[in-house]
Write a structure and sequence with these properties.
It contains 4 helices and 6 strands; from the N terminus they run ααβββαβββα. With about 150 residues, it is α+β, with helices and mostly antiparallel strands. The protein has a single domain, classed as Beta-Lactamase. It has a 6-stranded antiparallel sheet with strand order 3-2-1-6-5-4, sandwiched between helices. Helix 1 runs antiparallel to helix 2 and helix 1 runs parallel beside helix 4. The chain is globular.
């Protein structure tokens, strides 16, 4: 199952590009992208960014319930995605060893690394109330949307 259809994602990519066009402020851009995706993806209860700084992930703009502010590299789904610099798709967060439960209603998660040049900049984090809500289609298009921040 995907959080959006291919057609919905193609529209979201266009909207994301339009939102960040000409704007260089990362806070403004990640705030707008988080709001766009939170309000467009199906069954999503968290959409936000964590920025990599001083060897850890620090909460940035997001939509959803209050979230963990600091995440250590290699800890939880976000820290694992950042440490491995690789997207993590977790069909059932309750089966992920070391999952950090910021919102108890979350059941699945996808975390997409964001790069500025060749350097890890942070991650996009998406949680869902549904099991198996994210797949390779989500990975493809959310990665593309993440690239709009610095390209």
């Amino acid at each position: 199952m995907s959080a959006a259809t291919k057609e919905e994602y193609e529209l979201l990519v266009s909207q994301a590009k339009a939102l960040v066009a000409g704007e260089t402020d990362w806070i403004a851009n990640t705030a707008n992208l988080s709001a766009l995706l939170f309000n467009s993806l199906h069954n999503v209860n968290f959409a936000g960014v964590y920025r990599y700084e001083n060897g850890e992930l620090i909460l940035g703009p997001f939509q959803g319930m209050p979230a963990c502010v600091h995440i250590q590299m290699g800890k939880g789904v976000c820290g694992t995605a950042a440490a491995k610099e690789k997207t993590q798709i977790v069909p059932n967060v309750h089966e992920f060893a070391g999952h950090i439960a910021c919102d108890s209603v979350s059941n699945s998660e996808i975390v997409i690394p964001i790069f500025k040049g060749n350097q890890l900049w942070g991650v996009f984090d998406f949680d869902s109330t549904e099991l198996h809500n994210f797949d390779e289609l989500d990975k493809k298009y959310l990665t593309e949307i993440g690239k709009t921040l610095f390209n």
